Amino acid sequence: MMIDDISLTLFEWAGIPSTTYGRHTGEFAGASQLGLLTVRTDEGVEGHSFLGSASR
Prior knowledge:
Layout: E1 3-20, E2 27-41, E3 46-51
Antiparallel strand pairs: 1-2, 2-3
């Protein structure tokens, strides 16, 4: 199996709802710059990974 394609899609997640995960974390809201990494192989296997954070 060999990797034959890698792509990165950058996008903005706007309008993140206000969220608090616990007393030890801040309250997150607003927008965040994110990326979606896609890796494809010559056998048709495809994997994805999100890059970035919704908490900024």
